[in-house]
Amino acid sequence: MAGDAPSRLGRLMYSGILAYMAIDGFRNNDKRVGIAEEKGVPMPEVMVPFSTGMLLVANVGILLWRFPRLAAGAVLVFFAGTTPVIHDFWDQEGGERQGNKINFLKNVALMGCAVMLLDAAGEDAGGDDA
Q1: Distances (CA, A) of 17 to 1, 43, 50, 60, 90
Q2: Average pLDDT over the chain, rounded to whole?
Q3: Per-residue CA distances from 111 to 19, 34, 62 (Å)
Q4: Half-sphere exposure of 57 (CA within 13 A, CB side)
Q5: How far apart are CA 43 and CA 41, in angstroms?
Q6: Is the residue at 116 inside a domain?
Q7: Would you report the helix, strand and coil content of the chain in percent, each value rounded to 5?
Q8: pLDDT digits over 100-115, tens only?
Q9: Is residue 128 included in any domain, yes or no?
Q10: Can you spell out the DSSP letters for 79-125?
């Protein structure tokens, strides 16, 4: 029903995954900066912790359903920006290719959920169904 926040259980499950990803990102920041540097990400020592922090903050917004358009939009930007750059499985071979293909597809699924939440946030705010 328009005007209602999406399922609390669904948001909790989604937020749990995003929180795990963000916390793991902070714990392994040096490794992730190195990967981003190898992939040609500009200023990886700034961009990696910034994007990880953006994911964590946006995650809280989704969980609590506060500023849901901004939160879902930020999650969408995170995945749209990082997924094709970091998980470019089409340029890899063997096990590295398979692992990155799995992570690419997982991220696309998480991005799809962010799109649905963005749509729900638009309905919640009286927006259109776009």
Answers
A1: 25, 26, 18, 12, 25
A2: 91
A3: 15, 24, 13
A4: 11
A5: 6
A6: yes
A7: 80, 0, 20
A8: 999 999 999 999 999 9
A9: no
A10: HHHHHHHHT-GGG--HHHHHHHHHHHHHHHHHHHHHHHHHHHHHHHT
Residue 115 counted as domain residue: yes
| Beta-carbon count within 10 A of 48 CB | 25
Residue 105 one-letter amino acid:
L
> What pLDDT was estimated at residue 124?
62
Range of the structural domain that residue 73 is part of? 8-123
Give the number of domains in the chain.
Answer: 1
**CA–CA distance, 97 with 90 (Å, rounded to integer):** 7
Question: What is the reported pLDDT for 125?
Answer: 57
Predicted confidence (pLDDT) at residue 130 exceeds the cutoff of 60: no
CA geometry: angle 106, 112, 116, nearest 5 deg? 145
Cβ 51 vs Cβ 107: under 8 Å:
no
Domain annotation covers residue 3: no
**Cα 86 to Cα 36: distance, rounded to the nearest angstrom:** 7
DSSP state of 40: T
